[in-house]
Design goal:
Layout: H1 3-34, H2 44-71, H3 79-83, H4 92-118, H5 120-128, H6 130-144, H7 151-173, H8 184-203, H9 210-214, H10 224-234, E1 248-259, E2 266-276, E3 281-291, E4 298-309, E5 315-325, E6 330-338, E7 343-353, E8 358-369, E9 385-388
Antiparallel strand pairs: 1-2, 1-8, 2-3, 3-4, 4-5, 4-9, 5-6, 6-7, 7-8
Length: 389
C-alpha cells in the first residue's frame, strides 16, 4: 500500500467512524433535551449549545469521509458516485443510504439557523428527521464499511444502537410534563424495527459473501465496462473456469510461515490464505529479503511473488506485491495478470496475524487492464520495503 493510499484509506475510515460517533452523541443530546433532562449544575442552555456544536462537527467529519472516499485511488469513485444516490458502481443501494442521510443531515443543520424564518413547528418536524438520518447512516455503515466484521466495529455500532434505543424508549414511554403523553405503540414499532435490523445485520453484512449481495449479485461491484472486457476476452461467463475474473471480496484465513535467516541474513515469509465466499480459492504471498541487522526483527523485502489459484489448485493469476504495510494490521496490495486474459486483478488483502502465526482477514480484487501473460502490469515491482518479522 502506497503512502497516499494509506492516507486516503485511513482518512475515509476514521472520518466515517468519527462522524458516526458524533452523530450518536448528537442524537443522545437531542433526546435528553426533548426529555427535559437537566440539573442546576448542567443547565439546559449548555445541552442546547453542545447539541448544535456536536452536530456541526459531525457534518465536518462527514465531509472528510466523503472526500476521502472520492479521492481514494483503490475504489476510483467518480464524483457522481459520492454525491448522487444509486449511481455508484460499488454497493449502490447502501451507498445511496449514506448520501441521502448526508443531505438530510445538512438540511436539519441548516434548519437551526433558519428557525426564526420557518417557525418552531416546522423546525421541530425537520429536527425529528434526525432519527431517520441516524437509521440511514447506521445501515450505510454496516452495509458498506470494510470494518463491519471486526470486533471493534461491531462494538461501536452495537453500543450506539443500544444507547440511542434505550433513550428513545424512555422518551416514548415516559410522558414529559406538563402536557406530554406516552406512545407505547410507536415504541413497540421501533423495537420491532430494531430487532429486524439486528437480524439483517447478522444474516447479511456479518456473513462471508455479503459483497456479492450488496452489489446485486455482480461480483465485486467493478464498473460494467471493465467486467465486460474481462468476460469477452476469456470467452466465458465469470465464475465458469475463472471464478475471479469479475472481481470479488472474500474472507481469508491461513498461516504465515518463516524461513531463515540463513548465514547471509536472507529471510522468506510465506502467507498461505484460503478464500471463502463468492470466489473460493487460495492466495499465496511470498516475501523474500534480508534482515536489516543480524538478529533483528526488521526485514527489507526485495523480492515478492503472489499466486491466486482456484479450489482445484490451478494457478489462474500471478504477479507481484505493489503495496505493503505491516503495522498492527497487514495491508498488502498486488497486481496480478491472468494467462491469455485481457484483464488482470488489482488485489488488496487486509488481515491480522496472531501470536501463533494464524492469519485472518479480507481479500478484495478489482479487474484492471492487463498486459497479458503471467506477469503483473508494468511498474508493478515495488521498491524495497521494511517488514517486521
Amino acid at each position: 500500500m502506497s503512502a497516499w493510499e494509506a492516507i486516503t484509506w485511513d482518512a475515509t475510515r476514521a472520518g466515517g467512524f468519527t462522524a458516526y460517533a458524533l452523530l450518536t452523541l448528537s442524537v443522545v443530546l437531542g433526546l435528553m433535551l426533548s426529555a427535559q433532562v437537566q440539573s442546576p449544575r448542567w443547565p439546559r442552555v449548555i445541552n442546547d449549545q453542545l447539541h448544535t456544536f456536536v452536530t456541526l462537527v459531525a457534518l465536518v467529519f462527514t465531509g472528510i469521509h466523503v472526500f476521502g472516499a472520492w479521492i481514494d485511488p483503490f475504489m476510483r469513485f467518480d464524483w457522481t458516485e459520492v454525491f448522487v444516490p444509486f449511481v455508484s458502481h460499488y454497493r449502490p443501494l447502501w451507498m445511496a443510504l449514506g448520501i441521502v442521510g448526508t443531505y438530510l443531515g445538512i438540511a436539519i443543520g441548516l434548519s437551526t439557523w433558519l428557525r426564526p424564518y420557518i417557525g418552531y413547528s416546522w423546525w421541530r418536524r425537520l429536527h425529528e428527521l434526525t432519527l431517520v438520518v441516524y437509521g440511514l447512516v447506521t445501515a450505510h455503515g454496516l452495509a458498506t464499511g470494510s470494518d463491519t466484521r471486526t470486533v471493534w466495529g461491531v462494538a461501536i455500532y452495537g453500543v450506539s444502537v443500544l444507547v440511542v434505543g434505550m433513550l428513545l424508549a424512555v422518551r416514548l414511554l415516559v410522558p414529559v410534563a406538563p402536557r406530554g403523553r406516552a406512545h407505547p405503540a410507536l415504541a413497540g414499532l421501533l423495537g420491532l424495527v430494531t430487532l429486524a435490523g439486528v437480524a439483517w445485520t447478522v444474516s447479511g453484512p456479518l456473513q462471508p459473501g455479503w459483497n456479492t449481495v450488496a452489489n446485486n449479485g455482480q461480483g465485486s461491484g467493478a464498473r460494467g465496462d471493465v467486467g465486460t472486457a474481462g468476460q469477452a476476452a476469456t470467452g466465458q461467463a465469470p465464475g465458469a473456469r475463472d471464478p475471479f475474473a469479475a472481481g470479488f471480496s472474500d474472507a481469508a484465513r491461513g498461516t504465515l510461515a518463516h524461513t531463515g535467516p540463513d548465514a547471509n541474513g536472507n529471510v522468506t515469509l510465506e502467507l498461505k490464505l484460503t478464500l471463502t465466499g463468492q470466489a473460493p480459492g487460495t492466495l499465496d504471498i511470498r516475501l523474500a529479503g534480508q534482515q536489516y541487522e543480524p538478529g533483528g526483527g526488521d526485514v527489507s523485502v526485495t523480492t515478492t511473488a503472489v499466486t491466486l489459484a482456484s479450489t482445484t489448485g490451478a494457478p489462474l493469476y500471478r504477479g507481484q506485491v505493489t503495496r505493503l504495510s505491516t503495522r498492527d494490521t497487514w495491508h498488502v496490495g498486488a497486481l496480478l495478470g491472468g494467462s491469455g486474459a485481457a484483464t488482470g486483478l488489482d488485489v488488496r488483502a487486509d488481515f491480522v496475524v496472531d501470536g501463533g502465526d494464524q492469519v485472518s482477514g479480507q481479500v478484495t480484487a478489482v479487474p484492471v487492464t492487463n498486459n497479458g501473460g503471467h506477469q503483473a502490469p508494468a511498474g508493478a515491482t515495488p521498491s524495497p520495503v521494511g517488514v517486521s518479522e
